[in-house]
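Note to self: the last two entries modelled the partners one at a time, which told us nothing about the interface. This time every component goes in together.
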Amino acid sequence: MTTAFSTKEITAKIDKKLAGSITSLDVNILLVEKDSLVELLAYLKNTPGLDFDYLVDITAIDYWDYFEVVYQLVSLKNNHKVYIKTRLTGRENLSLTSIVSLYKGADYQEREICDLMGIKFEGHPNLKPLLLWEGFKGYPLRKDYLE
Amino acid sequence: MEINSFDNIETCSVSANDTDRIEGEVIEELKARSQQPIPDPVQWMQEQGKGGLFLTKLDDILSWARKSSMWPGVCFTACCAFEFITAEASRFDMSRFGMEIVRASPRQADLMITAGTLTWKTAPKIKRIYDQMAEPKWVIAMGTCAISGGIFASSYNVVPGYNRIIPVDVYIPGCPPRPEALIRGIQMLHEKVAKGTLNKG
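The predicted structure of the combined assembly is written out below.
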């Protein structure tokens, strides 16, 4: 079984500039500033000993005050997993950096979140609607969406 | 035939048992009866005015033909399809109604059984499949999703009923309907088709 990965190892190893933007929410959950997200994911993927080579899922949650985007990473090599969360405040013009260049599997996940939550992913190669259609008004999975 | 009655027949076989003797006797008997060719059964073709007559309305015979071989087309958008598959398979056996051939091409289909939820993104395809079917054609709305959108009726992307897209002849409630319910719905459609005319099925 995949074991939870203690994020203490990461925060201890990581360089100080990046460490300043990270908070540990739980034993294997990290909260990161949205500007440092790609840097952190690249670090987790490429550092020997961590090797988070597999992106399981990306999802987004509407908490009214802010949107939270959750990345679930697993290392197939070391058999451990970690959750990375980032928060976006406000409800208009939300954007986040795409991680398709890091994980190819993020492609459809980011398109789905863009459809249903209205979070744009900058640098995505093909951010067309995936589940909805051109011309659809609104973002259906937001809390304030009413048809 | 009595086996013992063949005991005294002379044969060239030295080790013939009873079964062999019976077989030989049957062949000899058939051969003796079959020395002349049987006349070909075409005599009736020469006879004039002796055939049976059957009087009916053209509408009735057309409706009978239409309802006796109603070929369903493929329109299985969701889980109701499995109930349809069960109804088609050996236990419920829809070939009793001349419906065993499910056509992959809408041009060869008479009946669209809409088994499943319809989303707005799929709706243009369903409309196109319906338009490609040749007249006369019928539609059965199978399950609550097909009738009204079901539990997804208020969703942002579910069509609240197939009758927004295409005309529906028979509605079958259930989530999903059992194969018995589907067969009852098909029988109701047969009753409807039986009332059809030459112009409208």
